[in-house]
Amino acid sequence: MKFPLINQPWFARVMAPLAVGVLIVLVWQGACRYWEVPRYLFPAPSDIAESFAENWPDLLHALWSTLYVTMMAFVAAVVIGTLIAFLFVQSKLIEISLLPYAVLLQVTPIAAVAPLIIILVKNTTTALTLCATVIAIFPIISNTTIGLRTVDPGLASYFRMNKAGRTATLWRLRIPGALPFFLAGLRISSGLALVGAVVAEFVAGTGGTSAGLAYEIMQSSFQLDIPRMFAALLMITTTGVALFGLMVLLERALLGGWHESSMAPER
Amino acid sequence: MLDRTQTGPAPISSLAPQSQAVPVVEILSVDKVFANGMRGLEPIQLVIQPGSFVSLIGPSGCGKSTLLKLIANLIEPTDGRILWWRGGFDKVGTPGRRLAFVFQDPTLMPWSRVETNVRLPLDLAGVNRAEATRRVAAALENVGLTPAARRYPRQLSGGMRMRVSIARALVTEPDLLLMDEPFGALDEFTRNKLDEDLVRLSHERSLTNVFVTHSIYEAVFLSTRIVIMAANPGRIFKEFVVDEPFPRDEAFRASDRFAALCRELSTILSDASLASRPA
Q1: For strand B208-212 and strand B53-57, is the pairing parallel, antiparallel, or unpaired?
Q2: Which of A34, A48, B149, B223 lies at a CB distance of 3.0 to 4.6 Å from B55, suitable for a disulfide?
Q3: Could you write out the DSSP letters of every residue in B191-234?
Q4: d(CA A38, CA A82)
Q5: Is A259 on the interface with B (CB under 8 A)?
């Protein structure tokens, strides 16, 4: 007997991790039932599903709130980060004057700065977005700067020999050359924007008007509603994975065909 | 048998030179001292006639690439003058429209398809779309890459990439083609094929070529005239005329005459190496 589907590479790539996931859930469920673990200590998958079914309107609302902050921060990080990178490559002086501050921003733990930002900025959503932007911007700056600087010297001299203007050199040489670096920056930054949003929500605490997934987790923790906590946690994870997948698709669309990282291996 | 080695600029008998023709390049006692004080070339005289195929060959450090860059107007001579078609260029660093330069590497844009790569110099020069498309198609046809027009450089072999680079040089319809060891990284078989195509293209288009190479066989196969250079200091050691009519093909490469010419050139090159030892 033959299983032609198994020989398809995509089939294995999808089914193998899926099978592992199903196995983990089954073992988890079985273990919880077998040792009769109380649901307020460690809920079984069925408890989590049940909790999700009960609380989905609240949870979805919380998801939307976190997602909104994440997206706003991500867009802000991409726009501002790219502009800063372009500024950096314009002159070495600008770069050496500003880079230490970009690094400063990067190395300061966001949880330590977040309380200050939340006190200073009145609007909670704006404060949260600001926190998440601060943490998401660095990979964009550093990757795009490196990308814009990494110009094939042979091509650069070819452009010079052909009297290419600044604009033509930028659009036809620097930007396409920087694209793989920029996209790698996007991939890191999208995940960091989510991390930043969740961390900021934690710091903002339950006192504010915030109602994101971190708020849900804290509330559940106070009420010892552990299944609900797991449900919220699962939503954060799923969001992160979805963002990552989106970035990979974007990379494929923009680099497919020409860049090593997006080429199908030759067979 | 006539003495093939001469010291002055040699007439190219096979091409029946129009003695009235304006020389493509005249190098008039040009020397080059680099910024670090190193002497790249001692004063050189060289006249390149239209339609000739001049190869520069010699041991490393003999200044053949420097000489090519001078001819390409990429660097400035320290002393002396270079004339192109009896004229000059206003500015160093930008070869004129009638010159095309092919690098050692294909230097293609990996993010652009073959046709876009070939069209690049036309886009940079502001040639209109319709005219550019026509010329790109013709250039690709010339190097036998029409079927690969929509592919990316990564999907091509080394030889095909070099063909793209040549098509990009031809698309501007230059009169003078300058090449710096363009096929050095290719295998023998691919190199021979490209040499044959280059001979055919240059002949069809009455191109003037200056070609830097390390290969004796390549120099003999391609050239009407070979300039042998020596190092310490960089200078012209001897000149060597290849008096073989065009078109040249595989039969020429297989002939006894070809072998004899290669032997002769090889002897001169050994002498040039001996003369290149540091003083």
Answers
A1: parallel
A2: B223
A3: HHHHHHHHHHHHHHTT-EEEEE-S-HHHHHHH-SEEEEEETTTT
A4: 50
A5: yes
Q: Are B31 and B80 in contact (CB under 8 A)?
A: yes
Average pLDDT, chain B: 86
Cα four-point dihedral sign B261, B267, B271, B276: positive
Q: Is B233 left (phi over 0), alpha (psi -120 to 50) or beta?
A: beta
C-alpha dihedral, A247 to A239 to A199 to A126, nearest 10°: 80
Return the structure tokens found at A70. Answer: 């994440």
Nearest CA in chain B to A254: B111
Q: What is the pLDDT of residues B85-127, one digit of tens each?
A: 888 776 776 666 788 999 888 999 999 999 999 999 999 988 9
Give me the residue label for tokens 């001049």: B54
B247 upstream amide cis, omega within 30 of 0: yes
Under 8 Å between Cβ of B50 and B102: no
pLDDT above 60 for B6: no
Q: What is the pLDDT of residues B214-267, one digit of tens each?
A: 999 999 999 999 999 998 888 899 999 998 888 888 889 999 999 999 999 999
CB A154 within 8 A of CB B110: no
Whole-number pLDDT of residue A209: 58
For A14, counting Cβ atoms within 10 Å of its Cβ (0-12 exposed, 13-18 middle, 19+ buried), the class is exposed
From CA A113, how far away is CA A121, in angstroms rounded? 12
CA distances from A84 to A87, A99, A118, B216, B271 (A): 5, 10, 25, 53, 59
Nearest residue, CB atoms, A154 vs list B105, B111, B125: B105
Picking from B107, B120, B121, the nearest residue to A152 by CB comes out as B107
Distance (Å) from the C-alpha of residue B16 to the closest C-alpha of chain A?
Answer: 34
User: Mean pLDDT in each 10-residue stretch from start to end of chain A (267 residues)?
Assistant: 69 87 94 89 91 91 93 96 92 88 86 87 89 93 92 89 88 93 95 93 70 89 91 93 93 82 55
Nearest to B266 by CA among B219, B234, B233: B219
Which chain B residues touch A258 with a CB distance below 8 Å?
A: 110-112, 152-154
Structure-derived torsion over alpha carbons of residues B254, B259, B261, B264, reported in degrees to the nearest 10: 170
For an interface test with A, the pick among B73, B120, B162 (most A C-beta atoms closer than 10 Å) comes out as B120
